[in-house]
Structures are given as C-alpha cells and as structure tokens.
Amino acid sequence: MAVISVRNLTKTYHVGEVAVHALRGVSLEIEKGEFVAVVGPSGSGKSTLMHILGCLDSPTSGEYFLDGADVSHLSDDELSEVRNHKIGFVFQGFNLLPRTSALENVELPLLYNAGSLSATERRRRAMEALAAVGLRDRAEHHPNQLSGGQQQRVAIARALMNRPSILLADEPTGNLDSRTSIEVLDIFQSLREERGITIVLITHEPSVAEYGSRIVAFKDGRIVSDTPNLRQRVARGELAEMPIAREDA
Amino acid sequence: MRVIASFQLAVQALRRHQLRAGLTMLGITIGVAAVITIVALGTGAQQTVSDQIQSAGTNLIQIRAGNYTRGGESVNIASGLGSATTLTEADAEAVGRIAGVKYVAAGVRLRGWVANGARRYYTQILGADVPYAAMYQWSFSRGKFFSREDVAGYAPVAVLGTSVRERLFAGVNPVGSEVEIHGQKFRVIGVTSTGDEDQSEMVFVPYTTLQRLLGINYLHLVTVSAKEAGQASGIVDQIVPLLRQRHHLTDSAAARARQPGLLGNQMPNSGTGGLVPDDFTVKTQAAEALTRGLYTSVAAFVLANMPKVDQINLQEMAGTLNRASATMTALLAAIAAISLIVGGIGIMNIMMVAVTERTREIGIRRAVGAKQRDVMLQFLVEAVTLSLCGGLAGIVLGFAASLVVARILEWPAEAPAWGIALGFGIAGFVGVLFGYYPARKASTLPPIDALRYE
Q1: Across the interface, do B448 and A56 touch by the CB < 8 Å criterion?
Q2: What is the average pLDDT across B433-440?
Q3: How many beta-carbon pairs under 8 angstroms link A with B?
Q4: Cβ pair A95:B360 closer than 8 A
Q5: A185 close to A90: Cβ distance less than 8 angstroms
Q6: What percent of chain A lies above the pLDDT cut of 70?
Q7: Is B166 on the interface with A (CB under 8 A)?
Q8: In which domain, by residue range, is A67 found?
C-alpha cells in the first residue's frame, strides 16, 4: 500500500485579484521506503505540494491519503495530530528555536504528543535521537553555537522523534556547503536503508536530486516527468573519496 | 501540553526580556498596590469607628443631676449643674436594666484640696464605681483600681490621675502612701495611665466613701456605657422617659392647667420633656471623641467637617469618617482602575510584539504538532505570568504603602491578609483579559504563513 497517495490535487492562491494556480492537478503515489526527489524551478509548485503533503496546508481540490487515511478534509486539531505523529520536517533554514538548546529543540514534538511523557523520558529519548545523528556532546548548545551541518542534524533528529511515516525535506542542503550537503544526504540514505523511512526531498538542484531513488520533475504546477533513478548516487561512497575536512568539532 | 510546561516556557520567554517584562509589569504593580491600599484604608476606617471611637468614650452616656438648660435653650437660664438631688443609686440600677447597656457607674463629685503633707493641689475628686475603669479601658501603671468590697465598705482608698501624682509625689511611687481629702486620710492604691487630660487631673475614690464624707445620699452623675458604639443615642432616648417616670415628672392635667399662669412666657419650650422640665441632663460623649484618642489627622478632618460639634452623635461621626475614607478610596480606586487598564493594555501590547517576534517559533511549534489551543495556552500563560509577577510586586508595594500611610499620615490603615489573594486575583484577571487577544491571534496564525514569516 502506498504511504502517500494524491489524486488530482489543485491549489489556487488569490493574490489580490490575480488567481495563482500553484498546483494544476497532481497525482502521485509514493510507496513505503522510497526516496523521492522532487525537482523543478522555483514557482513550479513543488513547495506547495510539500506543504500539502506535510498537512501544513490543505488543497483547493483533490484527495490526499496518508497511510490509507484521507487527510484532505481534516480539522485543524486533527491535522496537528497527523503532523505530530506521521510527518517529520527538515527545512532549508533549519527552523530550530533560537536561544533553546539542541536537546530542547529535539524534545519539542514530544511536548505536543497526546500520550504525554514524563520530562525525564522526553529527555532520554531526545538524547538518544541526538546521539543517532552524532551530536550527543552538543546537546546543551544553542543553535547559534552550532555549524549549519550540525543544526540540520539537530533538525533531522527532531523530525524523527515521533517515528514518522514520512520525512519531508524542503531544500535541506540549500544553506550548506557541498561536503556538509553530502553528509546530510548520507543521513537520509542510511535512514532509508536502515529504518525503511520514506523520504520526500524537494530541491531545485538536479545534482541533489540524483541521490534519490526516484525523481519527480515539476513545471508550472504539473508533474512533467516521474522516473526511477537508475543512476542513484551514493553519498557514503563519495564522502569516503573526499579529502577529510572535518567540521569545527 | 500541560499548564506546567506552558508556565516553564513562559518563565523562559520572560527571562529573555527582563527589562521589557519589568516595565510592562509596572502598571499592574501600581494598580494592585492601589487596590491593597484601598482595602487597608477601608478596613482601618471601619476599625477606627468600632474600636478607636469606643475606647475614646463615644459609647458612653453621662447622666448629670440637674438641668443646665432648664430655662430653655433660647433663654439659657441655668439653675446650676448638680443642683438637683433627685438622682439616686436606684435610678442608676434602673438604667442598667435598659437593653444594650453594658456598664453603669454611679458618681459623686467634689472640687477640693488633695494634700500629701505640705504639697497640696486643688482639683476634682470623683466618687466613682467599680465599672468606671473598665468603661474607659484603663490600664494601671501602678497598683489597681478599687474593688467592689472597697465600694461596699466605704473604704478610704484613692486612685490618682497621672498629673495629680506628679504634683503630689513627683516621681516617687505613691502606692501605699496617704493623701488627705476633705479632712480625711485616703490610702493611694493605684495610678491610672489614662491619656485623657481631664481624668489625669482627677482623684478617684469610691462614691460611697465620698457620699458619706459629704453627708449626702444622692448622686451627681451616672456614667453609662453601651455595648456597641452605635447604640448610645438609642439608649439616651430610653433613659429620658425612664428617669422622668421615676422622678414623677409627668405632665399632669393640673400641671398643664397651672402652666400658663405660673410661668407664662418665661418658659416657652423646655426641649425634650413635656411641660415639666427634666431635672437631669443626658448626653452622649461622642463629641468628646473628637479631641480624644483619635489620630490627630482624622480628628482634624472630622472637626473641619462638623459644623455643630455639640450635636454630634456617633452615627454622624462614623459617617464623617466613612466619607473621609470614601474620598480617599475613590481617589485610589480611580488610580487603581486607570493603572490596571493601562497596565493591561501594556501587557496586551507587549504580547502582540512577542507574537510578531515569535511568529516563526509559532510556525515551528505548529509544524511539529502543536494544536491551536497549545499555542493559545502558551501565550495566555505568559501574559498571566507577567501580570502575576506585577501583582506580586504590587502586593508588596501595597502593604508597604499601607504602613507608610498609617505611620506618616497617621491614618488608620492596615492591609488584611486576604489582600494578598485579592491582589493575585485582580492581576490574574487582568492577565487573562488582556492576554486573550494576543494569544488568540498567535493560535489562529496559519501554520504555513507563520513558518515562512521572515
């Protein structure tokens, strides 16, 4: 069964009197364990698609099934719960809470979890997640004390806290240098391989899209191509070949 | 998300902007302080009416033998105070049975010399009864007041006022010494600590002893105390007909027939009585309270607002004091209301700023699963926390202000313990009232717009 299934999705914004058709009938099925790279120039509608897939926005028309459940017509509270349980976000700008420790940032989704955990349990789980992205010793650092790559790894740890069905990454490498970008992509690829997490990555860089297992190309609010990536790049292998330029560890 | 977690977030957020938070609290602080001071003034004024006035003697009634205004107030022919010999111990006992009367003390007066050897002092000697000390709430710096046995046994014992003591004994403890009054030796058994100037000039002996000394069997005065301060005037209204009846001052037909021929226009009206005038005078001591025992500023205020000091009664006194405190209360209430509203608007303003500043944070929280009510709660709790901190400072300030008012203005003000709960209640209410709109605005931001906010 498809994790994500959207049919004839449209989204129309009204800017003043001008109607902007961000999505003009998008249908897409994503199976569990896929690493889908969505590419397209800015304004092609890929970000809009991601907001709808992330239950941050609702479509003007069309259907969206997440894990087999229709989520296109849910209330605000229900959408919040879906975001909390089934979706993990990774953003271009990291979107960590400023002046808040890495640990507390990672704890955040647990705070809004209905089955409220004790503070110590939240802390333990957050620490575990930070350790998984190699940042155990940075737990008490604030975002401004972390490098871009480290911040993005904190964001990934946060996204995985509630064991989501899908990980949505919106230009996750946009603010990173090339080596750090590959490190982040390596994390995505290993998450997919080791935990079978479904990943939807949005990017405007074709080179980044090549790390996906499938590439969906957008233009003017429509899918113009949707093909399996037969020449998928492997981040780990590339990292091994690169000269060692360690971060300010 | 629970309230405790929201509270922790609120404290964190407020700590990041301590100066801003402090300035915002100021309005609430002043408002709550004003409210506490109002409560303190109100409570203090009430206490003054019931306690201070009572101890100052306004629950007291004096019955004097004779009628100073026998000729009518307009004519003002006095036949002499104490000239009547009709007031008796039986009258005092009868008055004691009137409902609302607490104590009755018979009294006999004498102006004369009091001597300790060569030192002599001309003053008032009052033959009093045992309850007299309790009526004036005397305490004794030395010795004691005379007992029931002393009164029953015509004991030659005396209690000195402080001035008398100074004049006759000058620093030496007089208890146990003897003084001579009207040719008889009296043993000094106590010195009163009364603050009343008249009483400090007096010497008190058992009235029975003084009666025997003077060879009389009537009384010059009877002092009556009411159980509650407000009842004095009502008791006076009962004493007058009771004594008229006991003294047979009825307006018989014969008396009425004789009246015009005998007295003619010399006696047009004799006030309270009928055609036969009273042979006694009854007055409450409310007026004396104006200069006795009260805080000086209160007394000054009351005097300034009392044109007819002689006709004052307790209700008017209480009313004046209440009006005085009502004026101050109204003033403070206005300050409180204005500063609470302004403070509330300040909180609202700062919360609006916080919501705008933290739009992205709201977006992040919504993205990871915060519901509208979670965001709402977070900002509302922050506003209430801010307001409560202001309230706490206001409570401290209010209690301090009450002390200052009591000390410096000598105005009776005492903040009660429940003022603390009141202060927090008001602060909390203001926080919710003015925090609601910004919190609601924060919670209804579309998640995607909040997230993309730059």
Answers
A1: yes
A2: 96
A3: 62
A4: yes
A5: no
A6: 96
A7: no
A8: 2-95+165-241
